[in-house]
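Input record, target 12 of the design panel.
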């Protein structure tokens, strides 16, 4: 289950973000291009993967420090 957390966060985050953009576009009566959805999704994915990779590196270094004691 630990390895599934980044994927679940990525999928749920993308769905929530795209839903928020869609609701905003409906309420403001504007047309949003598909490329905007793709750009937002890709940037959100990059941010999430950077966050989880840094988190994994720090967790790994913490475990090594604890093992040294």
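The sequence produced for target 12 reads:
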């Amino acid at each position: 289950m630990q390895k599934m957390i980044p994927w679940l966060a990525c999928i749920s985050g993308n769905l929530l973000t795209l839903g928020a953009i869609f609701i905003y576009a409906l309420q403001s009566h504007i047309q949003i291009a598909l490329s905007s959805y793709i750009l937002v999704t890709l940037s959100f994915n990059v941010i999430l993967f950077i966050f989880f990779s840094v988190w994994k590196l720090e967790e790994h270094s913490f475990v090594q420090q604890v093992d040294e004691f």
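The mean pLDDT is 76.
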